[in-house]
Amino acid sequence: MIAWDSGSKCRAQVKASEQKEHPHKGTPPTSGQPAAPGKSAKDADVDPLARLRRRVFQPIQEKIYLPINRLIDRLGWIAATSLLVGITVAGGLAVRMWNNPDEARRTMTVARFYLEARNPAPPQDPRVSEVIRDLTNRLKDDISPSNRRYDDTYGPWTQAQMAVSLQGQDAFDATEMAQWFGRIAGNCNCWRDNLRGPHGHLAATGWVLLSFARMRVRPTEPEIEFLLANQHRPGWWPIYATASDDPRNGSAYATAFCAWALQELLDRGLIADTQRQRAADAVRKGRIWLVDNSVPGRPGRWKDYPNGGVEYGAESLGLSGLVLHVLHRTPGPPPSANDADWMLTLPAELPELRDKFSSGQTVRFPDQSWRPDATHHFAFPWLIVATTDAYSHGSLSQRAQAARLFHQIPEKRQALATEFKDMPFFAAETLIALRHLRGDGVI
Predict the structure, then answer these.
(1) Do 139 and 154 touch, CB atoms closer than 8 A?
(2) pLDDT for 153 beyond 90
(3) Which of 84, 364, 408, 415 has the highest local Cβ count within 10 Å?
(4) Mean pLDDT for the chain?
(5) Which among 192, 178, 191, 139 has a CA at the least distance from the CA of 147?
């Protein structure tokens, strides 16, 4: 049964009539705002900036994404997994570097060293040339005849070091320098470590004769005889002349310099024919002794006095660098094992400039007298020399570490200029090392 309501009937008729006249009434736009004439609700919803970005980037994305997606579709499961892991790790590293700029710089620096280490030749930091220029200008003043004097700082040992370091710099007259050395040689036809030294000093003499070789000056036969006569049967030289035959007197430093100086003179034809064979034999024996007397199990390290006893048993980085260089400069099998051990045990940082070692070994003489050896071996210059020599025999990571050390050299520039201005011997050894690294052929 249906109830009839005349009021309801009238309202329904009015509503139907309105819908006929206005067919869209009752379906408001979804955004709550009237749609623009001729545009859909969807168009009215889009942000104009978003539409602009899509208009600009969509064609680029289609060109990039399409070939990448095709490539991904061709990948197998393992390759796809590896790629995903790589992208994830790289993204994580990128975020980490972004959040920690200092670590990012360190990472980039390490990467730089590894890139440089791909070249078997040592890297060349242009800033090192500035350090070389500073040292060269300073030593040119120190070596001038007006400043030359015979004392513990500027004696023949130091003058010889400066002469070797300043080769090719037009800093001194070789003839005048050789005459000065000749005047102070003394009756022993040798050179002492200082004016008061009672014994001829084999290392100081080795340095002077090395400078003779580099200056193309022929030593006298008695000066060569001084070296030959003071070598002991096993092949070593003592630091002081006329030392007893006690094996504890065998000095790696003196042996290295005597063998090196003789070989440099032989290479340049500056030894008399009557002494050439004896000099060559002396070099060979000295080299064999050095090779046989490295630290046991460590072919890249030496003690100054290998047989000196427990009290003199510390190995020296500076001395080891010198000996390794002499093995490179004298005839014999290439010191590959020595180079490999040297590169394996490179320090994490460059040594401090004042890092030096002195064994203080007591040198004994036949009359039962004795004298301590006060020679100091600086680590900084000879680490650079030996690492330059051994660089090509290191692994990629070892060469990267060596490159890192070489790039630390310019950081020492200020200290070299201020703290060591009264140490010309150290400045000379450092200049020799830096020029050797640059490939100047000074040693």
Answers:
(1) no
(2) no
(3) 364
(4) 86
(5) 139
Residue type, 34: P
Q: Which tens digit of pLDDT belongs to each residue from 120-130?
A: 999 999 999 99
Say which DSSP state 364 is in.
E
CA dist., res. 247 & res. 238, Å (int): 9
3 state SS of 377:
strand
Rounded to whole angstroms, how far apart are CA atoms 87 and 97?
15
Which residue type, as a one-letter code, is found at position 143?
A: I
Q: Is 349 within 8 Å of 406 (Cβ atoms)?
A: no
Q: What is the pLDDT of residues 77-117, one digit of tens each?
A: 888 888 888 888 777 767 766 666 655 455 445 677 888 88
Q: Considering the entire predicted model, what is its pTM?
A: 0.77
- Report whether 152 contacts 194 (CB < 8 A): yes
* 389 closest CA partner among 443, 314, 308: 443
Looking at domain 123-438, its CATH architecture is Alpha/alpha barrel (1.50)
Distance between CA 360 and CA 192 in Å, rounded?
Answer: 17
Pairing of strands 315-316, 302-303: antiparallel
* Dist. CA 119–CA 212, nearest whole Å: 35
